[in-house]
Design goal:
CATH class of chain A: Alpha Beta
Number of helices of chain A: 5
Number of strands of chain A: 8
CATH architecture of chain A: 3-Layer(aba) Sandwich
Radius of gyration of chain A: 17 Å
Structural class of chain A: alpha+beta
Oligomer: homodimer
DNA sequence: GGGGAATTCATGGGCGTCAATGGAATCTCA
DNA sequence: TGAGATTCCATTGACGCCCATGAATTCCCC
């Protein structure tokens, strides 16, 4: 897989060892390195049992959305609690591994395997079987969406088979 | 945990010992150190049973928000009384611990555990179970807010499509 | 073109360091 | 002088760092 990428692409599944360590997929490490964030910024995926992660670019997106609120407004309180309070900054060791906190493990329902799903400026962390189910659903929904759009002759949704 | 951060992020819960001492989470100490404030600036959270805390940046934000009011207005009186009058500056010992005043303990309803919630330029001090409830509420309200704004971006970022 | 060497990565284990916590010792002010 | 507070140590458990293994891939040279 060619490097030189500044976005998280593709899906990888790695093992959590006895000490709780997981290797972050090398291509993702490359992106993070390039991004410059000294670690891994993690934030819960609001409507899925998963966790979003990334570097500066991801973090800035969150901060930016907060910045439009008055620092002492109730909205800021709520958002900063939900977004920053629930976020975590994980460190990445010299071997490219990290240790997920209990909170993150619980949130994503992780046991001994983790699936990393590239999503451009961020990636997601899933429990493998849960992700498989989600992907199934997503795929069928896209299929259905295409059918709807196709009926109107739209070129909006590109065709392509299921996936990995 | 990767340092080099200039904002309070994530949530930590520490124990108050028999003498009233609590360790301030190391990452937060790091931020305070960087901020330069010699201690911990504490001010009551206006609409919650909790306490806001931070360094220079936090204190400046309070002043800034006060400055938007006419210094002789009743609003100014009320706010400055609530924000500045009720503020306290706590010291941090060599081991990174502080001792909360009775006022603060009462205001947040603290007993033997404290939860520190990062919120960017400040963090909040909560009694753990009380925070758990608030977090629930915050999360669901953000979810609904996000739905209302119809924002895309599974980053959980409302508006501004935190995308590429 | 093929076989082997060198690389890249994921993974495991041992160990030193640091943070959180508890307790003792010292200090201070009424 | 005594209660509360501040500084100094000690313990323990978590985390970061280094090295080893092994599999899969790439590179290179004959």
């Amino acid at each position: 897989m060619a490097g030189r990428m500044d976005e998280f692409v593709s899906t990888f599944t790695n093992r959590i060892d006895g000490k709780g360590r997981v290797s972050i997929p090398a291509p993702f490490r490359e992106v993070l390195m390039r991004d410059g964030f000294p670690g891994l910024y993690c934030s819960p995926t609001l409507d899925q049992k998963a966790v979003d992660a990334g570097g500066n670019r991801f973090r800035d997106a969150i901060r930016q959305s907060l910045s439009q609120f008055d620092p002492f407004s109730e909205d800021y309180e709520l958002l900063s609690t939900a977004l920053m309070g629930e976020s975590e900054i994980l460190s990445i060791d010299k071997d490219g591994r990290t240790v997920f906190s209990d909170t993150i493990r619980a949130r994503a329902g992780l046991t001994d395997l983790v699936t990393f799903v590239g999503q451009g400026f961020k990636f997601q962390i899933w429990e493998p079987s849960r992700f498989a189910a989600y992907r199934e659903e997503a795929t069928s929904r896209v299929r259905e969406l295409r059918k709807r759009l196709g009926a109107r002759g739209s070129a909006g949704v590109p065709s392509q088979g299921g996936g990995t």
